[in-house]
Amino acid sequence: MNVEEVLEAVEQGLLLRQLSPVERFILRQSWSGHTYSDIARDSAYCSAHIKEIGSRLWNDLSEALGERVTKKNLHLVWNQFQKNYTEKSATPKDLLPDTVAKDDFPLLLTQTQIKFPGSPLPLNSPLYINRPPIEELACAEVSQPGCVIRIKAPKRMGKSSLLNRMIAHAKGLGYKAVSLDFQEADTAIFSSIDKFLRWFCTNISKQLNLDSKLDDYWDEDMGSKMSCKIYFQDYLLELIDTPLVLALNEVNRVFEHPSIAQDFLPMLRLWHEQARTLDIWQKLRLVVVHSTEIYVPLKLNQSPFNVGLALQVPQFTLAQVQNLAQRYGINWADTSAIEQLMAMVGGHPYLLNVALYHLSRRDMTLEHLLQTAPMLTGIYGHHLRGHLEILRQDSQLVSSLQEVISASGSVELEAIAAYKLESMGLVQLDGNHAKLSCELYRRYFRKQLYQEDALSA
């Protein structure tokens, strides 16, 4: 049994809860024989903190297994526990200890209110799939003074679900945490840098339950950026006595307003650099979440996108899709069904969740799902129509996507078109070279876009 199978069995069969990213990291590293000193060095946590979390984890496992578990005897106890089960039948259900009724495991999934996919997953959702090592890396990095963490992925890849778990982890460490989603900002907010930064500071103050005292710190003669910096340094960071995690979600909305981006983004970079010389700025931990690369020109030493820890949220692997299907209560005997599904939608989390949601409800067979997937009447009809409406508003995007659809390999696209298509999740980029994300988009848009061309000819 490999460590990923052990993690799955521990979460789904023994403890009936998701381990925290740090617990998963400790279990994974301990299984590989690493010492607490090794784990602390690789995770950026102090050894005492790692030992404390590890000790609680071993206690939980001891209670579940009915036998004392330590870091040193982990392999021995697990092997003894597994003796009664062959590799072939060792599923999370089979690995339940005697103290838990085996019928309780499917009950855990059927009683969970599985909503239609599309919203960030609650922290306790059994449908959240970890994608090692991004959770562990992100949660380890957030404890570093003055850090910057950059999370990038197209829309609906799970960025917000990951971000919520990072914030929960930070709060568990006793930190303050604020999350701003730039999609919530009115268009008028982007009319000037002064208006934008006042909105920015006011929202952060409210989330920290502090009075907004902008007028006490805002000075027209000093300018908006300096006023914003002083407000943070002399008011917000001064008042709070813990680190502050500032999570900025959908920063690509700022990219769409170059005059704002060219002031705001270098300001974030400067705040990060302030931590080298001013202790108070070490309290600030920036998390920047975006769907595309920035396409606003910035000088190399002004961009916050070439510093800190960069994490790209990956698509699901076949093993992760198999795991997710089991959590929906779908137990395919072999991987051929999963391979057929992934041949259509790739490893895209949202598209896969939609499919598994319908299959778990027995709304249709896999064969029918795959046959109708690219059709407007299929399960992705609303999703595909939404993309089509966006494309219709930009003829350059349409021609760029048609170029990708027609190509046998990747093609080089104009930068902004490439980034916009990537943000929508329609293409995958390697530099400015793009290839289509999945077969679903090829079949649907090849038909829709060429039909529209024929009608307009």
Protein architecture, described:
With 457 residues, the chain is an alpha/beta fold. It has four domains: 3-111, no CATH class; 134-312, Rossmann fold (3-Layer(aba) Sandwich); 318-373, no CATH class; 382-456, Orthogonal Bundle (Arc Repressor Mutant, subunit A), CATH 1.10.10. 51% of the residues lie in helices and 8% in strands. The protein is built from 21 helices and eight strands. It has helices at 3-14, 21-31, 36-43, 47-65, 74-82, 104-111, 134-141, 159-172, 193-207, 214-217, 224-239, 252-255, 258-274, 318-327, 336-345, 349-360, 366-372, 381-392, 395-406, 415-423, 439-456, and strands at 148-152, 176-181, 244-249, 284-290, 309-312, 411-412, 427-430, 433-436. The strands form two sheets. The protein has a five-stranded parallel beta sheet with strand order 2-3-4-1-5, sandwiched between helices. It has a three-stranded antiparallel beta sheet with strand order 6-8-7. Helix 9 (193-207) packs parallel to helix 11. The N and C termini lie far apart (61 Å). The model is unreliable at 84-112 (pLDDT under 50).
Count every beta strand, where a strand is a DSSP E run of 2 or more residues: 8
Query: What order do the SSEs take from the amino end to the carboxyl end, as H and E?
Result: HHHHHHHEHEHHHEHHEEHHHHHHEHEEH
CATH architecture type of the largest domain: 3-Layer(aba) Sandwich
- Helix content class: 40-55%
Which features characterize this protein?
single chain; 457 residues; alpha/beta; Rossmann fold; five-stranded parallel β-sheet
